Amino acid sequence: AREGGGGTGRARGSRTVSRADAGRYVCRATNKHGTAVRSVVVTVEYEPSIGESGCPARRLWVEGAPAELPCAASGNPLPHVTCNKLGDHQEPPLGSPNVTRAHAGTYQCRATNSHGSALRNVTVAVEYSPAALTLRVLPSANVSRGASFSVECRAEGLPTPTYGWALPPAPNLRFAADNRSVAIAGAAAANRGLYTCTATNRHGHRAGSVLVRVDEGWVVLLASLGSVGAVTAVALAAAGGYYLKSRACKKGEYNVRDAEGSSEAACLHRHHHDRAEVYGIQLTQP
């Protein structure tokens, strides 16, 4: 009889052995002269099996942590368990001491003993802080005044990163729903400067910056041309006035008597640096 079995008896016939048959059995022999007792320990060997409790089908690792993939299997004798990444024909990633993004994927764990083997697939996801951040200005970081442009930010990371910005304050900014980009319509001087994007998740953050220039060269050129034009106009006006005044002194019909003491007479008889200017006067008949 099996110890703890709740009774005694003899096995008759044959039946299929199950794992529940393992244990300590007590054999008792009796006749009219007495009794002999002997105990026997029975072990039941069986092929391996791998269950969810000892080997979860989904794992979540963090980059930089020790690379370990425990997978417990049942069986007698105790199975030997190995796990290899599917589709990886090179050295198994589990050979690396710490988790990297290359560890992500599906692994096949095999438990083996003398009675057979069992297989179980395990999917591993690797979380990591934001990396490979790229920041670009479309169509270009050199923007003409009044033109439209956008600044886009992308980063890898698991969980998916969220995005934040530090940029020149202006009223013409429009952020995307996921905050991954910002659009600027009608660029002005207020939009020039440094645009910094920061990608963040629970494992860390990463930032990048780009300098945007708003080209106002044509405005300055027009202003300069306007200034030159104004100066030129003033100079021409002054020259024209001088010319007209000079010509007014040199041309005309004069009466000698009336011209005496007049500004015209003074003009006609002026001297410059000891060099006399001589003008002819046409006399009119009284």
UniProtKB/TrEMBL annotation:
CDD domains given in the database record: Ig
Keyword terms, alphabetized: Membrane, Transmembrane, Transmembrane helix
GO cellular component terms attached to this protein's record: plasma membrane
SUPFAM superfamilies: Immunoglobulin
Keyword Membrane: yes
Entry-linked PROSITE patterns: IG_LIKE (PS50835)
Native organism: Ramphastos sulfuratus
GO process annotations (BP): cell adhesion
Parts of the chain that traverse the membrane: 218-244
InterPro entries (alphabetical): ICAM_VCAM, Ig-like_dom, Ig-like_dom_sf, Ig-like_fold, Ig_sub, Ig_sub2
Pfam families: Ig_3
GO terms for MF: integrin binding
Name the UniProt record assigns to this protein: ICAM5 protein
Lineage: Eukaryota, Metazoa, Chordata, Craniata, Vertebrata
Domain annotation Ig-like: ranges: 48-125, 130-215
